[in-house]
Amino acid sequence: MKLILDPTNFDACPQYNDWLDQQYVEVNGALDILGFQPRPSRVMYALSPDTYEATFADFQEQREEEMKQLVFDEFPSPIAHYFYRFENGYENELQRLHLLRDTWEALVDVLHAIAVAECRFRGLSLADPMRFADFLSDKVAQKLLNIERILTFAAASGISLGLAKIVSVSTLQAMRQLNQSRNGFSHSAAQSESQAKEWIANCYADVLDVLDDLRSLAGVQVLRYIGQTDGITVRCEMFVGHGLTRTIRSLVLTADQLKDSQRFLQQGQVLVVCDGCVFGLRPLVYFREDSSGHVTKLCMFRRTHGDAPNRRIEFEVVGDAERWERDRTLFVDEINELRVLFGIPLE
User: Fold this and answer.
1) Rounded to an integer, what distance in angstroms lies between the CA atom of residue 254 and that of residue 316?
2) Helix, strand, or coil here: 167?
3) Domain ranges of the chain
4) pLDDT higher than threshold 80 for residue 183
């Protein structure tokens, strides 16, 4: 959400007022006038409106830098990796444009995978206008529409999804509009460095606004199940932040988490911890280990193809400009769980 200052309304931007109060307290301590403790922001707004407005630029700059660092360090790795490279690891403007598109697509991929996985986890029966084939679409626009329809359907059914605490319908609608209207998000090829730079400039602020709206993704953990050390402790590889160095941690589950998620606790599963629940992201997110076994990269669903008995699922390996295929039968349990939600025959 773009933060806007209204000189006629002190409450127009509470985040800015909180920041002003914090800045004053850090330097001077609490503002206390014979026991009266007004908000420093309110005092500045009333007595020095020019300063109040002028300082807003400093607040925006600091908030933007803090938000970027949050994405780099705490967002799920597909998003964090591409966004970090967009900011710090590009060689030219054409490459940077591709990295911005990769960031946008990773953002949609992660939200869509969580949305579909939570439907499976909760056994949410799905109906028109949602279709099974749409859940396996490779189109960004369709994925955004899927997420919006899932949230709308769940809300109308009185079902509280963890995803609803991460992304709102209004944010999704804004993302759908941006996806349609900005050249930077399309797969049209920029013809020159200058055109790529122009396209980046046209949509960069929009991407930052969307990332700001989705700050709660910092609380989402994407994991690869490795094993269990005891009845409640799971060993997992973590996919958090921009780095690709293997990181393995122990995750202690509650009795309710174990009861609800036992079927996901097995080799080959990619898990997500969202709003206190643990569920599986397959077939929309998988993983590939390198030949040495030292590096694991997440793989994002792109499409299905082929005819039985040679049906395949094609993934894109995060961080590599490479597609990778697996036999569709590897994911038959997850696919059939989805088919049940739509009331259609199993594979």
Assistant:
1) 34
2) coil
3) 10-54, 68-218, 221-341
4) no
